[in-house]
Amino acid sequence: MEKTFAMIKPDAVNRGLIGEIISRFENSGLKIEALKMINANPDIVANLYPDNEDWLRSVGQKMSNTYKRYEKDIVADMGTDDTLELGKMVRQWLVEYITMGPIVIMILSGNHAVDVVRKLIWDTNPVLAQPGSIRGDFSVDSADFANSAHRAIYNLVHASGSVKEAEDEIALWFGGN
């Protein structure tokens, strides 16, 4: 059995979607090993998102690609087109987003738990998420709308992307308990 980490973000908590999201996880055969509602510490949240140049540039490039896709002027809106600076903005927005209200964190286990949870939540940009997925059914946000508002994408949930990432995130949020 594999373990993974998942978080129900403040926008989902605020909208009363905790039960629906947990039901989706349980209905897929996953078992809840641990669960708690907390107000996230900004220092812990900052550790969730890498602060290295490769990750920051990758995130900044995604933002740049969104602006190109929708034929918008990134320099006029963001003041720069430098992918490192854009990535730093997004990282800060993510910390602000996760700390704007209560979150629910959990450890889930099951056969291929990481992949099952990722399939249930789908794409980080909700407008691209498939119907039937958590983000596809419940989020109406998009990268271009969030960027123009200078904030993170409100996409309801976070989930580990690999077994190693799950181990790191479980240790970060649950401290080995």
Summed up:
With 177 residues, the chain is an alpha+beta fold.
Major sheet strand order: 2-3-1-4
The succession of helices and strands, N to C, reads EHHEHHHHEHHHEH
Shape: globular
| CATH uppermost class | Alpha Beta
Please identify the structural class as seen in this structure: alpha+beta
- Tally of DSSP β-strands: 4
Tell me the CATH topology: Alpha-Beta Plaits
Q: Please tell me the total number of domains.
A: 1
Tell me what portion of residues adopts beta-strand conformation: 15-25%
Fraction in helix:
40-55%
Could you list the spans in which at least 5 consecutive residues all have pLDDT below 50? none
Largest sheet: 4 strands, antiparallel
Q: What is the number of helices?
A: 10
Report on this structure.
This protein is 52% helix and 16% strand. The longest helix has 17 residues, at 53-69. The protein is built from ten helices and four strands; from the N terminus they run βααβααααβαααβα. The protein has a four-stranded antiparallel beta sheet. By secondary structure, it is of the alpha+beta class. It has one domain: Nucleoside diphosphate kinase-like domain (Alpha-Beta Plaits, 2-Layer Sandwich), CATH 3.30.70. The mean pLDDT is 96. The chain has helices at 10-14, 18-27, 42-48, 53-69, 74-78, 83-98, 113-121, 134-138, 143-148, 163-174; strands at 2-8, 31-39, 102-110, 157-159.
